[in-house]
Specification:
mainly alpha
């Protein structure tokens, strides 16, 4: 026998009334919870134009979070089109020697990012393309001569197309490379590497590996210059 469903008693609503015990007053789930919230005396967010129910200090959770973070429930949201206007009117016009820091979205490494209408793109690459044209063959990286790309610098004067090796050399020069002890997984210090190399011919690679808690193959690569080759 087919089960009969009762329609929500709200005029114009075609949803089925809740089948839970008591029928939830003949309302569908959506209208029932609206009714329940109104019975509990929940008020709307006090911020103008927001229709969400208030949770703390008369504000919804989103506006209250902005209030706690910025001291103003209306701050923290980037106005539509603001990044593009800043790029067109400031980044492309600026020609000073000092770094120009991007005031909007950045990636996890601190580099400036912007939504171009389809996807998030690197602002540094966009600025480099405007100033220097498309990236030439063999030079795919937008490298920062100032070394402050990870801080959000987008000055087109500081950005150039560079090869992978040139970009890595810039990072080493500016101290922003994660090689050596800057690498989170590094087990050795620079002094350890120097001591390992000075032990060549004195102790076996297996003894050295056991001392430093590394593999024998790692000791071999250090001694032959395959690893830590940049360390004199």
């Amino acid at each position: 026998m087919a089960m009969k469903f009762k329609a929500c008693c709200v005029e114009g609503c075609n949803n089925c009334a809740s089948q839970e015990r008591g029928g939830r007053r003949g309302l569908c789930s959506s209208h029932y919870w609206r009714w329940k919230r109104s019975r509990q005396g929940l008020k709307r967010c006090s911020v103008g134009g927001c229709s969400t129910s208030s949770t703390t200090k008369g504000m919804c959770s989103m506006h209250y979070h902005r209030f706690r973070t910025f001291g103003d429930p209306m701050k923290g949201r980037t106005p539509n089109g603001a990044p593009q206007r800043y790029f067109d009117e400031v980044v492309l016009v600026y020609g000073g020697d000092e770094c120009l820091m991007w005031p909007y979205a950045k990636d996890n490494q601190g580099y400036a990012r912007m939504f171009d209408g389809k996807r998030m793109k690197s602002v540094s690459r966009m600025a480099c393309e405007k100033a220097n044209g498309e990236a030439p063959d063999g030079k795919p990286h937008a490298a920062h001569a100032c070394g402050n790309g990870h801080l959000g610098c987008v000055s087109k004067v500081h950005i150039r197309w560079a090869s992978v090796s040139d970009n890595m050399n810039d990072k080493v020069k500016h101290g922003t490379s994660n090689r050596g002890i800057r690498c989170a997984s590094a087990k050795l210090s620079e002094q350890d590497v120097k001591d390992i190399r000075s032990s060549k011919g004195i102790h076996s690679q297996y003894v050295i590996a056991h001392k430093y808690g590394i593999n024998q193959s790692t000791v071999s690569d250090i001694m032959t210059g395959k690893l830590w080759a940049w360390l004199p």
